[in-house]
Amino acid sequence: ALKWGATETAELFIAWSPYVRLAVRDGGFDGSGDLTVGSRVRFREETEHGPAAAFEVLAKLPTAKASQNISSGFVDFFGAASVGKHLGHAGMIVGYYHLGVLSNQRPEGTLLEHTISAALSRELTGPLQGYAELAGIFTPRQNLEALLFGLGLGYEVNAQLILDLEGYLGLTSDADLAAISAGLTVNLGSLF
């Protein structure tokens, strides 16, 4: 991901996973992921008594191979809200709600996708961060109810570069998969 700080509370980003490995009961697929572009705005700072809160909008552009089930092959749009609170030495807890408006070019027309997740992140040693996440993805018109568990690591090389590795495991029959992705985040600092 590339991130640019538009202001102290707003950023623009472009994200792409150069490698994704997706394993399903019928076999596996690997390749690069879709391209995501968006913006995130923090509208509430964390205080002693309340969490920080942010809103983001993004679009997912189909750059991965749809034939390998890594991409839907369509442009999709998303809006999200998140809250986060530091818990002292225990780390930080983040709650997230994501509403996806999935392309109407699909045979079933436009779909709404709801994602709800909770994550706990914590510094493990110096520049190494770890996190665990539980996420539910619901697409009512497809009767899809997927529950996923994820673990990830982030290694802060310096203030501008973070290396990422994450894995997810499906916990329900609608999430019959295991996925691994690797990437990096480059913070380009402020635009102005």
Report mean pLDDT, rounded to a whole number: 87
Order of helices and strands, N to C? EEEEEEEEEEEEE
Shape, please?
Answer: globular
Distance between the terminal alpha carbons, to the nearest Å? 20 Å
Largest sheet: 11 strands, mixed, barrel
- SS element count, helices: 0
Helix content: under 10%
In terms of structural class, how would the helical and strand content be classed?
mainly beta
Strand content: over 45%
Strand order of the largest sheet: 1-2-5-6-7-8-9-10-11-12-13
What does this structure look like?
There is one protein chain. This protein is mainly beta. Helices cover 0% and strands 68% of the residues. An eleven-stranded mixed barrel has the order 1-2-5-6-7-8-9-10-11-12-13.
Question: What topology emerges from the helices and strands here?
Answer:
Blueprint lengths: L1 E4 L4 E7 L2 E6 L2 E5 L3 E10 L7 E10 L14 E11 L5 E11 L8 E15 L2 E12 L4 E15 L2 E10 L6 E14 L2
Parallel strand pairs: 1-13
Antiparallel strand pairs: 1-2, 2-5, 3-4, 3-13, 5-6, 6-7, 7-8, 8-9, 9-10, 10-11, 11-12, 12-13
Structure keywords:
13 strands, 192 residues, eleven-stranded mixed β-barrel, 68% strand, globular, mainly beta
Q: How is this structure best summarized?
A:
With 192 residues, the protein is mainly β.
